[in-house]
Amino acid sequence: MGFLNLLTKRGSQTGANLVRLPTGSFTLDPGGRTVASTLPRSFPAGKVRQIGELVLSTFQAAREAGIPLTELIADYAALKLTARELRGGAIIFLAPRSLGQK
Amino acid sequence: MSIRHKVLLLDDDQDLLELYREMLARLPSQPEIHTATSGARAISLLESEPFSLLISDLNMPKMDGLQVLTIVRRKFPQLRTAVMTSVVDAQFRTRAYAMGIDLFLEKPNTSQEITFFLDCIESLLGREMDGGFRGVQSKSLVDIIQLECLSQSSSVLKVTNGALNGKIWFNNGEVIDAESQDLSGEAAFRKILSWKTGNFEILPADPERPRTIFNSYQGLLLESAQALDEAQAQVPEGESAPSPEEGAPAPAAESPLAALARFNGVEFVMTVRASDGKFDSWSAENPEQISQWVRQTMQRFRGLGDGLQAGQLSQLEGLGPQCHVALVSKADNDLCVGFHRSLSQDLVRETMSKIATKWAS
User: Fold this and answer.
1) Which domains does chain A have, with CATH numbers?
2) ipTM
3) Are A69 and B319 a contacting pair at CB < 8 A?
4) How far is Cα A67 from Cα B60, in angstroms, rounded to an integer?
5) Is A47 at the interface with chain B, CB within 8 A?
6) pLDDT at residue B243 greater than cutoff 50
């Protein structure tokens, strides 16, 4: 069963290319700059920026549509994103879900 | 004539691919094994010919397994998918299942694990072969129930209708219990029978299930049919008679959305077609602007979910000083409901769940 050794060796590798969904929060100023963050450094800054821009533009577009919002909750199958508006900026919480969690 | 399944193996390690190819070739069903060392190559192969199963690694350079699965679920929704990975992490397991995969397996390390792995894959391929009911539209639910009863089956019939799902338990050809949302017993059975379309799946028997239905299946079907006939006959007047949980006054508008607006606290209802932005609204003050916001917001948050590989966006809620909103999607349509600002977030969520269920049905 020589090939089992090969499988075992491969099995010990870590998922370096996969990005874990983080638990934590970050705060944006009205310009979209991150002013505070508890997210792990392993989570790409580009993704943080993408989330921040989406949240701020959604608050902005909601205001323009006549339904101003102060809180947004996006429920994904594997992640809950909660964003609270802070005087033009926002604080955004990310919480991954586990299997079976409501 | 027996069908030879085609299995596509995706892993960036060529040596491993060869090993798995050899292992899978020994399966009793003798599937045809194809391999790909990159996500792009795998997707090209899937586009060029039909496959029964994709087995993908997670940790790969350039396009990782979750990215591949995101694309595959969109482009080939009928394809069975399995993940086989050395990344032992509950979060990746959750995210992979959230994308709708059929199996999540760790790369086998021992001979027992290899046997288990092969059994799982063979079972998955067998499920594909046995799934003859899938997509059969000419058979009604009544036909399926009769079939189970006449063949003296012991099984569980799982029925899915959009966001709704229900189960009917059979024991030796008798209906012994049913369950749907918060209903059980005969009430659940009648509810499930009222669904016009959906998917169903026969699951293994559950002999421990306590019996709550004692009526014969013929009696149940007859009563359900009568109840449906009566309900249909009452629809014109019934539309104006709210059920106890729907306490708000009935709107006079003819819009089909009016029925969704009967729940307490609802201020407006709107559906928007994601593909072209066409919308239908009930009681919204500035429907044009809101519809654009709904379409754009859902599109962008779905995109964010894909980018993060966080699975399907099940719901989006917004709380505001003037009103609260909740948004859900079904196929190509987005539903947006505006609620009175006095409603708590829990109540918004609970009411939206009922409205979404009604909308889906």
Assistant:
1) 20-96 (3.30.450.30)
2) 0.88
3) yes
4) 43
5) yes
6) no
